[in-house]
Each structure stands twice: as C-alpha cells, then as structure tokens.
Amino acid sequence: MEQKTKRIERMFDSLALYYKAIAPLNLPKLISEIISIAIRFSSDRTA
C-alpha cells in the first residue's frame, strides 16, 4: 500500500513538472482543444 501511494505521488509530481514546462508554450492551444472537446461532448450528449 505504501509503495502504491509513493508511485502515485511520483506520477503526479512528474505530471506537474510536465505541465509547468509545457503550459507556457501550449496554453492557447490546450484551451481551444479543451473547448472543442467540450463542445463535441455536449453535442454528442444531446444527439
């Protein structure tokens, strides 16, 4: 159990580092991507 939590923590740490490195470069693209996915998702649900 202890090992599993440590692995998950490490995973989140590396994710946070990754996003800190990438976010300044890709933020506008990421936001538009999320918006388009959300639009597609909501139109799928209504259809």
TrEMBL record:
<protein>
    <submittedName>
        <fullName>Uncharacterized protein</fullName>
    </submittedName>
</protein>
